[in-house]
Amino acid sequence: MNRQRRNFLAGLAGLAGAATVSRAAAQQHVHPLGPATTPRVLPDPPPTGVAGVVPVVTPDVPHLPFEMDGQVKVFRLKAEPLTTEFLPGRKVDVWGFNGSMPGPTIEANEGDRVRIIVENHLPELFAPHWHGLEIPIGMDGVLGISQSPIPPHGSHTYEFTLAQNGTFFYHSHMPMQEMLGSIGFFIVHPKKAHEPRVDRDFGLIFQGWDIKPNNTVPNTLAMEFNWLTINGKAGPATTPLCVKRGERVRIRIVNLSMDHHPVHLHGHHFFLTGTEAGRVRGPVVVPENTIIAGVAQARDIEFVANNPGDWMLHCHLPHHMMNQMVSMVGPTGAADTAMGHQHGGAAEGYKVKGYPQDMWMVMDDLVAGKPEVHGLPPTWTAAMMGMMTLVRVLEPEMFDHIQQLRAEAGR
Ligand SMILES: [Cu+2]
Question: How far does the centroid of ligand 1 lie from the alpha carbon of residue 221, in Å?
């Protein structure tokens, strides 16, 4: 079977309702999207330089390095088209920065003077907006108002002092460029650690995409979305967040998509401690288990990871827990449209109106070898798609073992 044909079938195989296999069928379809590739191993981010403040880990997204020019931190950001994979083998053409989509994470400290040299390697006009930062109008990155557009092959230098702290982000101010992936974190740490201090700090960017079968370019005008990603990966390719039992954890959730996302964490309650406008003031009294991250919002949540286990963190919109949905194929189709897949139920299931609805597709092999998935039970991938990841609350021995595996893998 040629590659193109296989990809076409793969696309259908990955669709929501029909993404279901019995054990026998699983053996035929263990690589529905392509062979597993060597997992990408990112180094730990550098220390923040602030006592008691840990760096933010943005799984699957690298950090943007900087150089010092006197007292100024100088970052170089390159807006460019690139090809990424939402799942191993599922290639997508997006617009990101410095080889990454979302763009690399900018991390700095309150009070820093930063200079960001932005090069435009896109084939059209561009400018980056620094979302949430209260900076001079000339730095705001709005084309036609605060600056002239950066032409293709052009560059523009932004320089400002960070007077706030919190979870901010940069993104194109052109809506369709945003829908091609033009976003990245801009984290600003406080001068003094917020209390109670956290032991782990993570950042997750939620995005939605419309990509038709056999296409690699997202439809930026869509109102319906069939690929849903966290930090540029769809479940089960999202890298789990590993923490040690008893640690206090912060997760920064940013939504740059066309939908709001009710983000749900299993096994723990959490508190809202910050937004893209900064730290929540005063005592925080509202416990949450699901929090809405509205479009263009950041939501910082914190909790004590006191319940051991591998816990789901996911958007709770049903369509956002699926991969490669295609209308009019799958659950609404006839039994013989299932492309040879057999569902988990017995044959008499077809006598039941609405059957099939389950979404069982084992993809363990697709993402095997990543240190962060070490020790997960077989079939852990089978019901994990779209905007889903794991918070692994690990015993110290297992946590240390995974850290060692990461070190061996070159982090
Ligand atoms: Cu969602």
Answer: 18
Six token digits for residue 404: 């060692």
Residue 128 CA: distances (Å) to CA of 75, 139, 211, 238: 13, 9, 25, 26
Total domains present in the chain:
1
Give me the percent of the chain exceeding a pLDDT of 70: 85
Ligand 1 centroid to residue 386 C-alpha, Å: 9
Domain of 87, CATH number, reads 2.60.40.420
Write out the residue range of the structural domain in which residue 268 sits: 66-319+385-408
Evaluate whether 95 touches 101 at the Cβ level (below 8 Å). Answer: yes
* Cα–Cα distance, 338 to 118 (Å, whole number): 48
Span 156-185, pLDDT tens digits: 999 999 999 999 999 999 999 999 999 999
In the reported structure, the alpha carbon of residue 363 is separated from the centroid of ligand 1 by a whole-number distance in angstroms of 22
367 in a domain, yes or no? no
pTM of the predicted protein model: 0.88
Kindly give the distance from the C-alpha atom of residue 207 to the centroid of ligand 1, in angstroms, as a whole number: 8
352: confidence class by pLDDT, cuts 50, 70, 90: confident
Q: DSSP 3-state helix, strand, coil percentages of the chain (rounded to 5)? A: 15, 35, 50
What separation in angstroms does the CA of 254 have from each of 2, 184, 261, 390? 40, 10, 10, 17
Tokens of 213: 């079968």
Tell me how far the alpha carbon of residue 102 lies from the centroid of ligand 1, in angstroms: 17
For residues 127 and 92, is the Cβ–Cβ distance under 8 A? no
Has residue 259 been placed in a domain?
yes
- pLDDT tens, residue by residue, 51-107: 999 999 999 999 999 999 999 999 999 999 999 999 998 999 999 999 999 999 999
Give the pair of three-digit tokens for residue 251.
């997760």
For residue 395, report the distance from its CA to the centre of ligand 1, in Å: 30
Using the mean position of ligand 1's atoms as its centre, give its distance from the Cα of residue 255 in Å.
Answer: 9
Rg (the chain; Cα; Å): 22
CA of 387 to the centre of ligand 1 (A): 7
> How many angstroms separate the alpha carbon of residue 186 from the centre of ligand 1?
22
Residue 77 lies in a domain: yes
Distance in Å, CA 325 to ligand 1 centroid:
14
Do the domain assignments include residue 35? no
pLDDT value at 213 more than 60: yes
